[in-house]
Amino acid sequence: HKDITKTMTLNTIVTGGAGFIGSHLVERLLADGYNVAVLDNFSTGRLDNLSHVRNHDGLTIHEADITDSELMQGLFVGVDWVFHLAALADIVPSIQNPLYYHRTNVDGTMAIVEAARKSDVNRFVYVASSSCYGIPASYPTSESELIQPEYPYALTKFLGEQIVLHWHKVYGFPSISLRLFNVYGPRSRTSGTYGAVFGVFLAQKLAGKPFTVVGDGNQTRDFTFVTDVVDALIQAAKSQCLGEVFNIGSGISHSVNELVELLQGEVVHIPKRPGEPDITLADTTKIRSKLSWKPQVSFEQGVQIMLENIDYWRKAPVWDANSIAKATKEWFAYLG
């Protein structure tokens, strides 16, 4: 692979760079002096997420679909680092339309990997999902845990990871995969799909509506702040740990009830859902030792930052028990 000196300005690509995590990564890469090309089809990403860096000399934005392999080939020439975040997320839509998820998360990853390989990139960082563990047998959950996806989103993200790692094995492709746990922070998605708890709760708080707590609220999640995830992505790109998988989490699990206490508001309880673990908790021993990474933002600090940025969710859908029951009907039907 190409030799890179510290004096060169690196050319980077961020697929899904207008999305939640992607936009934070773009911001950081530009601040660190890298050139950044964003590839996004804006199906869920928002140009507004990049408004604060839109005029930066080092930024180029391409409205492009990652499944267009011919277009991808031309965009990767001269690129040093690739961060592959573009993907379809969410559980229910993946159950409703698995082919669409496979096309984006698997075929799209294949197109990106091949374009990157043919352009001889120096690093390829794949953003994987801890959902591949399903309902784990052990906590904290290490990278060697049994893989048992519970729904098509989790499966397709894992298949994408397998492509990335297989290309390292066969072609010496300089890839590394990070399995993310429950990422939260400003600019997390506000799409019409029922999804991550923070976006749901913040929109409810703004509307003066009760928080819809699943089950008894004692389920815990390894909430990981987005800037800590960005740190991990950049550490991974700088590392020599190729063909490896790393968990990215805080290593601490907080209950939904704790989150409600910090956000302050009334609560209604909705039925517990099949296929969801009672606990998510990352074993981060490997990344702490091999990449010297550790999270910097505490849960309390992170929630405070979310509240300071709450206006972002003003136009987000406001969910209630009835609309959630309707949206998750197929979830119960197929996974129950």
From TrEMBL:
Identify the residues that the record assigns to the NAD(P)-binding domain, covering every copy.
13-306
Coiled-coil positions are: none
What the entry lists under Pfam families is as follows: GDP_Man_Dehyd
**CDD domains, from UniProt?**
UDP_AE_SDR_e
Q: What is this protein called?
A: NAD(P)-binding domain-containing protein
InterPro entries given in the database record? NAD(P)-bd_dom, NAD(P)-bd_dom_sf
